Structures are given as structure tokens and as C-alpha cells.
Amino acid sequence: MSKIKAEFVGSAVKPDQYPRDALPEIALAGRSNVGKSSLINRLLNRRKLAHTSGKPGKTQTINFYRVNDRFYLADMPGYGFARVSKAVKAAWGRMIEHYLTSRKELRGIVHVIDLRHPPTADDRQMYDWLKHIGLPAIVVATKADKISRGRWQKHLKQVREGLSLRSGDPLILFSAQNGQGRDELWRAIQEWL
Ligand code: GTP
Ligand code: MG
């Protein structure tokens, strides 16, 4: 996995803007500001390919990144962001729901959770819904660099219990800051391709 070819190919707010070359897709889901776009940059070894921000609500469209001409990573707007209007929230919800329920190219979801805190009601709802519609999901607990090593297991347990993960369900400890968990996530993604 030395040299990765990665290119932004476009943003979508409706289905006719999705890519048309039928490559497999893997989408990023998670709360606003949890670190979805940062995870993409770390995975692809590109500092500023996906735009990130300290403020929630940065990603507002489904953004497609073609990787090695082999598959797409689809960055999505986060959920649980209080400071947008009800109308905007509903529109994002419809857009994401339509993409996740109807997109034939979609192979799986990288569900990003903040390692520092117990999963929220929104996190649980999203995870349960993904299971319900039958989409495979890898849970990635990110921002591990913000928790001391000695407390990782306790926090991982909190994530497992909060989402009611079964023992075999994948859970990856990750940091976009230092690249921890990157190889493990690559392996998991490659199994879907
Ligand atoms: P939205 O697009 O608003 O949904 O947010 P997002 O989930 O794409 O989050 P983004 O990648 O923009 O990151 C949000 C903030 O968290 C930024 O300030 C990042 O620098 C920071 N961040 C993301 N991942 C990590 C991480 O692993 N460690 C640390 N320390 N900070 C991180
Ligand atoms: Mg983002």
C-alpha cells in the first residue's frame, strides 16, 4: 500500500450526481465533527484532500473520492448537528437515507465513533438502522490519540456496550492524527472489494 492514487471526483446532493462507472463504494457515516473527513485523508495519505474543520457541519454533500481507480470512498455529512435548521437536517437525512438504501454499488459503511465518549442516541440509531437495512458496517473508534493508552480498553468497551456490538463485530481503534489503526482499516476495506 505504498503509493495511493486518490482523486476527488465530485459532490452529490441527488442520485443523478453519483458516479456512473459502477465501481464499488464504501461510505463514511458518523456524527458531525467526529472525524470522517480526517479519516479519509489519513487513509489516503493526503493531508487536505477532504476538507475538515474544527466546527461541525463542514461536509454538506456526499463527496466521492476515487481510490486507485478501484473503488470510491463516499464522505457524507455528519448527523446530530444541532445548529442547522430543521429543513436542512431533513434534507440531509433524506439524501443520506436514499443513498444508503438504494445504492447498488455500496459495499459497506465505515461508522465513525468518538472513542472518548459513550455512543450517543444518534450513534445507536444509525448503527441499528444499518443492521436493519442489512448494510455491513465496520465501527471505527477515532481520536484515540486523545485518550491515554492505559484507558483504551475501557473506552473500547464503552463503545461496544453502547452500540450493543456482538463479540465478532469489527471495532477498530483509530487516530487520524497519528495513523493508528490505518493498516487494520485498510485490510477490512479490502475484504469488501
Ligand atoms: P463534518 O464534516 O462536520 O460531519 O465533520 P467530520 O466528521 O468530517 O470531522 P472532521 O474530519 O472535519 O474533523 C473534525 C475535527 O476533529 C477537526 O478539527 C479535526 O482536526 C479533528 N480530528 C479528526 N480526527 C482526529 C483524530 O483522530 N485525532 C485528533 N486529535 N483530532 C481529530
Ligand atoms: Mg466532514
TrEMBL record:
Its cofactor is Mg(2+). SUPFAM superfamilies: P-loop containing nucleoside triphosphate hydrolases. Signal peptide: none annotated. The keyword Nucleotidyltransferase does not apply. GO terms for molecular function: GTP binding; metal ion binding. One of its GO terms (cellular component) is cytosol. Residues 22-193 form the EngB-type G domain. Keywords: Cell cycle, Cell division, GTP-binding, Magnesium, Metal-binding, Nucleotide-binding, Septation. InterPro entries: G_ENGB_dom (IPR030393), GTP-bd (IPR006073), GTP-bd_ribosome_bio_YsxC (IPR019987), P-loop_NTPase (IPR027417), Small_GTP-bd (IPR005225). PROSITE patterns: G_ENGB. The keyword GTP-binding applies. GO terms for biological process: division septum assembly. HAMAP family: GTPase_EngB (MF_00321). Belongs to the TRAFAC class TrmE-Era-EngA-EngB-Septin-like GTPase superfamily. EngB GTPase family. Necessary for normal cell division and for the maintenance of normal septation. This is Probable GTP-binding protein EngB. It comes from Planifilum fimeticola. The lineage of its organism: Bacteria, Bacillati, Bacillota, Bacilli, Bacillales.
